[in-house]
Design goal:
Length: 320
């Protein structure tokens, strides 16, 4: 556990104002207002407020989970607070750091990164070891946006390494940036050891990852990629998200992760209609097992989200 001397002020809760469309509607285009919106003219007095104590929800029976919503204060958790491996959910921080160092505006592709023969050899090694990769060829170029899509949709470990090198000069220096960013966000129970999440030393808690996803969703480019169903990548062709819940139950964004040390993991954002009011939910499940890891995480995440929606009670204050 890393002890940080830095603390953030308040956890910012993003509020979205549109319900998610069906899964097929995502295909390469994302409704950014649905991901990031919120009416800047709405007064604080008109915002949803909790009208009852913390609701009972269907927490996973194993692993860890955490969530927050735009109708409550703070992060609610289950399963303890000990750091544990988070697998490819690590890539949320990888993308967050890349866009912090090399920011993009919506519609921009960003700089191009040249794929080397070393990258091709690394890809072949990772594929042989059963890791998630996308095909690359020596001499090809990947734009920053294409690399982020490869990183976050099919969860390409080989592209995580390319992004780390191109952003910071080396993987080790990039990991330092990841840990610095975690410190800045107040993620005191998080330690990153690699940009891909294959190292069991990349550890965090569900609560810390809720904090990160809330921060990540404030970047419209990152929010758009996390909410994209498919994208076209040079050499690799069309790639699709591993988050099979995208577009269901109001889910507008997410990142999966899985390996033997971590089990199944999912960090996700949803926008629910509760009594006619939009309620944004940011949630994370870690350490899900019993069957294929990612499916176990998706099942636990879906159950948790449905119960959060059913048990959330919002009202407008008198005169609001």
């Amino acid at each position: 556990m890393r002890q940080s001397g830095r603390r953030p002020g308040l956890l910012a809760l993003g509020v979205s104002v549109a319900l998610a469309v069906g899964l097929a509607g995502y295909a390469q285009s994302v409704d950014l207002p649905a991901l990031l919106g919120g009416d800047p003219g709405t007064s604080a007095a008109a915002a949803p407020t909790p009208s009852s104590p913390a609701p009972a929800v269907d927490w996973p029976v194993q692993g860890q989970a955490a969530y927050t919503t735009s109708a409550i204060d703070g992060v609610r958790t289950s399963g303890g607070g000990a750091p544990q491996p988070i697998a490819s959910v690590t890539k949320l921080m990888t993308a967050y750091v890349v866009l912090s160092e090399l920011p993009l505006e919506v519609g921009e592709e960003g700089p191009s990164f040249a794929v080397t023969s070393v990258d091709v050899a690394d890809t072949q090694r990772r594929r042989a070891e059963g890791e998630s990769v996308v095909p690359v060829a020596a001499g090809q170029d990947l734009t920053e946006l294409e690399a982020l899509e490869a990183l976050l949709l099919p969860s390409a470990n080989n592209v995580a390494m390319i992004l780390a090198r191109e952003t910071a000069g080396s993987v080790d220096e990039f990991v330092e940036l990841m840990n610095d960013a975690a410190d800045d966000l107040g993620m005191d129970d998080t330690e990153y050891a690699d940009p891909a999440g294959m190292d069991d030393g990349s550890m965090s808690t569900a609560a810390d990852q809720v904090v990160l996803l809330d921060a990540a969703m404030e970047d419209p480019v990152l929010a758009a990629v996390l909410g994209t169903y498919s994208a076209d990548i040079p050499v690799a062709g069309t790639v699709t998200t591993t988050n099979a819940l995208l577009g269901q139950h109001g889910i507008v964004a997410g990142k999966t992760g899985s390996h033997d040390g971590a089990g199944g993991c999912l960090a996700y954002r949803a926008v629910l209609d509760v009594d006619g009011q939009p309620v944004t939910v940011t949630a994370v499940v870690l350490g899900q097992r019993g069957g294929p890891y990612i499916q176990a995480a998706l099942t636990a995440a879906e159950t948790l989200l449905v119960s959060v929606g059913a048990s959330t009670d919002v009202r407008r204050p008198a005169g609001g």
